[in-house]
Amino acid sequence: MDEISPGLWHWTARHPHIDMDVSSYYLATERVALDVLLPPEGVDWFESIGAPPEHVVLTNRHHDRDAWRLQDAFGCAVHCVSTGLDELDGRGSVTPFDFGDELPGGIVAHEVGAICPDETALHIPAHGALAVADGVVRWPGAEGLTFVPDSLMDDPEQTKRRLRDAYRGLLELDFERLLLAHGEPVQGDARVALREFVDA
Q: Which of 30, 130, 134, 147 could form a disulfide with 105 if both were Cys (CB 3.0 to 4.6 A apart)?
């Protein structure tokens, strides 16, 4: 567990379906978990820091991960953008949001789309952060930000162009941290790193 800024926690855990480590985040003061897989200590970790979660926010529908375990343990509201709700039918209670909405913790949802209709970026002003889903990743040992493999895109060249356009628009936001669902977070020079990615 790594507190990357006061009250903002990051950890990685093995995703059981893709057999890769993925990143999760917790905003302790705000009681909001992002794209959460439970840490090694399980739900007890949240109790150990005296800040049990009240909300889980997804950057896209595929990232519900252990959201339902937190819902069962703490009664958390699980938030997903309305365009991604269908895939979550029957898994648990979901609170929908739309692009442009302000979510718990002062988080604002921004549309990315391109790779899937519900691809969302979450601007978190309280922590100077932007959380992203699958449109941009950082693989272990690789330099800089990149795309997921072409095989995961319907039309790779068009998808990449549209993703770059979406992230270029998000560069207008104020953030210094990029919270990646796939890869270690980018700290300090996040806007520079994202600009280099969209201009590549």
A: 30
Give the Cα separation of 13 and 18 in Å (integer).
Answer: 11
CATH number of the structural domain 2-199: 3.60.15.10
Q: Please tell me the distance from the alpha carbon of residue 181 to that of residue 200, in angstroms, as a whole number.
A: 21
| C-beta atoms surrounding 50 within 10 Å | 7
Q: pLDDT digits over 160-178, tens only?
A: 999 999 999 999 999 999 9
Whole-angstrom Cα Rg for the chain: 16
d(CA 110, CA 116): 14
CA distance 95 to 77: 7
pTM check: above 0.90: yes
- Region 30-34: what's the mean pLDDT? 98
Burial 73-106 (b: 16+ CB within 10 A, else e): bbebbbbbbebbeeebeeebebbebebeeebbbe
**Contact present, 50 and 56 (Cβ < 8 Å):** no
Q: What span, in angstroms and rounded, lies between the C-alpha atoms of 172 and 95?
A: 28
Three-state secondary-structure class, residue 81: strand
